Amino acid sequence: MMGRFLICLIFGMMFTQSAWAQCFASAGNPVGGTANLGVMNKNTFRIGTFYRFSYSHRYLNGDKNYTGNAGILKDANYNYLGLLVGYGILDQLTVEAEGGYYINKTQVYKLNNMKLKGYGLSNAVISMKPRLYYNADKRVEISCGLGANIPFTRNFQAVDGVTLPVDIQASTGSFGMVFQAFIIKEYSFQGMRFFLTNRIEKYFENKQDYLFGTLYSTSFFFSKHFVFEKLKLKDWTFIVQLKNQIKEKNKHYKQTVDASGSVLLFLVPQINVSINDNWNVSVMADIPVYQYYNKIQLANTCSVGLSIFRDFSFKKKQNTD
Amino acid sequence: MKKLIILIVALTCVFSACKEEEEDSLLNSFVSLTAENDTIITGHSTKITAVVDGENVSFQWSSTAGDILGSGNVVDYVAPTCTPGSNQISCTANASNKTETKTITITVL
To answer: What superfamily in CATH does domain A2-313 come from?
Structure first.
């Protein structure tokens, strides 16, 4: 099935780089786990996990490197483990839940190399994804998703008696909404697929009076499937993603934070291998192509990810004899 | 049954010990909360010191903007570059007999 194969390809690729925060923003935050595309077949259960590492060590002022003394951070990084589960209620409707855990979200300061480290559960997103259009002959699918973004906690984390900055809080502390749209076109005989995806994340103000800017993420994917008969692992897929992210400015105490918000463009190559037709393992890396940050902000230097995913079908097997 | 009794006794001892530890802390008064510099430039830092009259007092710090580094009664406040203006830094002194909070304002230029 088209849908089942597609989700194998893209899982983990849309984890957005939204620097939730402010000012000298953190290394970013993989808010989106709903990286899979399209809807699932009825009675299919999906589970996937992903790991992501992101590192930031340079400042940008607009799209120019900034080497002045204004930056208070030496660098920042995070390690994130995500989990996604989905279930096909109908052939036209999938329900999904995603969440994750920050192993660390660390800022290293120029001041005596001091560190602040946050950790813990991040937000969860629960989405319903209806299929809007599907043409089996033309191999075209259009679907969308609407979800609720739920913080694990509304209180900010404190370590050693110090309330951590918003940049390294594991959870945003704010509720939000997620809208997604997917257009998928497949050329079966050539083993090629094209995807266009859009994700909009809208947050509401949290208890600490932070309002994170709305994030608009648009991606275009091209994938090509190869079968290497001589290899033990035969099924390989190579994917190239062009990812654009526009993040509006944040607000704090109703005041716009000038040094927040950005326009980013990434090239994300990915390799996916299917193991025993059951497991799909992908590795990917974000390569910044263009980055524009309002005022001076800490910019993402590199991000790498690994995802593992599997579908289980609970449909009764049909006798095809 | 015997194991259950041992477990209950053990838990009682643990909770008693915790309570005793709490009773060890005492706060007579939160004397002062002062900053080395009450006006700093964005991106710069200043030391903030909480002075209390008491024993085994613990401290909790927070700020409306900017980052707090360190722990205990002396911390470094690092002013953010993006939000100049008046930023409040609060320190809460906790002891088993009482809790007291003081706030100071650092002007960030």
So the answer is: monomeric porin ompg (2.40.160.40)
